[in-house]
Design a protein that fits this description.
The protein is an alpha+beta fold and 238 residues long. It has 2 domains: 132 residues, Jelly Rolls (Sandwich), CATH 2.60.120; 78 residues, Arc Repressor Mutant, subunit A (Orthogonal Bundle). 45% of the residues lie in helices and 21% in strands. The protein is built from 10 helices and 10 strands. The strands form 3 sheets. Strands 2-6-4-5 form a 4-stranded antiparallel beta sheet. A hairpin with a 2-residue loop joins strand 9 and strand 10. Helix 5 packs antiparallel against helix 10, helix 6 packs antiparallel against helix 9 and helix 7 packs across helix 8. The longest helix has 26 residues. It starts with 12 loop residues before the first helix and ends with a helix.
Amino acid sequence: MSVTPVQPPGENRLLALLPREVREQLAPHLTLLELGLRHGLYKPNEPIEHVYFPLSGVCSLVITMADGTIFEVATVGNEGMVGLPVFLGTESIPGDAFVQVAGQAFQLPAEVLRQETATGGAFHELLHRYTQTLLNQISQTAVCNRAHSIQQRCGRWLLMTHDRMGAAPFTLTQEFLGQMLGVRRASVSAVASGLQQAGVIRYSRGVITVTDRAGLERVACECYRIVRAEFDRLLGPS
């Protein structure tokens, strides 16, 4: 049975879960942005001045090694928020975040987030639960990278992206996907060709369309469903 998207594109799950009065308090401080591919949201060891609530697209949380190798530790779409370290009481972290699939997001000043969550309440409680979902995703990704094949991991990654984008095609180069999966471009090319031949995706000129979601779910490892189930358990069914 195919899993439905986490949240309809064009709406952020966290903002939608907030009580109306909290959303009204935040509304004057939210700025709608178009986020292009590779747009940086925050950089290593620099103050995080804004947090972001994606409405569409996908953001990547990564660690860059001394030799320039990039390792993705988590992705965030319209189910979550980029800039969680602000809520956790820190101004910067060694990692960075950027846009891996273009889309829209609401930008909120970090100081407003601190003020709105400082005394507890619904927003504070919601972000506590979201923090756990993100930690679950990071932990499961670490296990997945160790235990599963490139094809299974690619299937998981594509399903998570499809959740955030709905039926819309999305732009993704083989080089970029290779960086996110921590493998060579040639390996990604072989996997993408195999998935296309199996009829689960269509891939042309860097644009991916999921043509058989149920088939892609059969290709992916169990990590996708585990992460999805935890989102629903902690944030409520989508």
